[in-house]
Amino acid sequence: MFDLDNTLYPASCRLFDQIEARMREFIRHHLAMDDGAAGALKRELFQRHGTTMKGLVEEHGVDPHQFLRFVHEIDLGPLDAAPRLDDVLAALPGRKVIFTNGSRRHAERVVARLGIERHFDGIFDIVAANFVPKPEPVPYADMIAALDFDPRRATMVEDMARNLKPAADLGMATVWIPNGTDWGAQGGGDHVHHVAEDLAAFLAGHA
């Protein structure tokens, strides 16, 4: 079970910076704010609701489909192909799925750019989760039901430590990929079973 952003690709490529900039632009346009106010609101909504999108939907009536389409129209140029990760995933036994607070289209574009799309048996995105984001428990249960697997025989890999808590509670092993941010480290604890600075190296040791 793999998160997408800052997990299947390194945070150092700064791809998510583009998404954050697009979020601010969306808020500026739809709520008639300047950039500073839009950035502050984005952070506040993220803290209160788990995702900026959920906060915009619940507090400002934003269409989530419109939001997702806009914020994920980014340039994937900074993202390099990942042949090492491709090789490791090929050797790793078991089904592999993506569990993301982003959209399916965004996930498909990213894994195609990385050259690893052939390895994934499914994508459970924020739309499939009825726009309920990680780390709320409901999408984890919905994802398990949709993809039909035993969580006690699964591992979840994620760059946000707090998103691993519901997975651990369900019996999954967990792997945290630090993304170098304070918000990525929030919510750490005993539910983080492994820490991996390099995803491909970690997986190679467990294939």
Distance between the termini: 15 Å
Beta-strand percentage range: 5-15%
Largest sheet, in brief, is: 3 strands, parallel
CATH level-4 homologous superfamily of the largest domain = HAD superfamily/HAD-like
Low-confidence stretches: none
Looking at CATH, which topology of the largest domain would you report? Answer: Rossmann fold
Number of helices: 10
The coarse overall form would be globular
Order of H and E elements: HHHHHEHEHEHEHEH
How many structural domains? Answer: 2
How many E strands?
A: 5
As laid out across the biggest beta sheet, the strand order is: 3-4-5
Over the alpha carbons, how many angstroms does the gyration radius reach?
Answer: 17 Å
Structural class: mainly alpha
CATH class of the largest domain: Alpha Beta
CATH architecture of the largest domain: 3-Layer(aba) Sandwich
What fraction, in percent, of the residue positions are helical? 40-55%
Question: pLDDT average, as an integer?
Answer: 94
Key terms:
DNA polymerase, domain 1, two-stranded parallel sheet, single chain, 10 helices, 207 residues, Rossmann fold, 2 domains, three-stranded parallel beta sheet
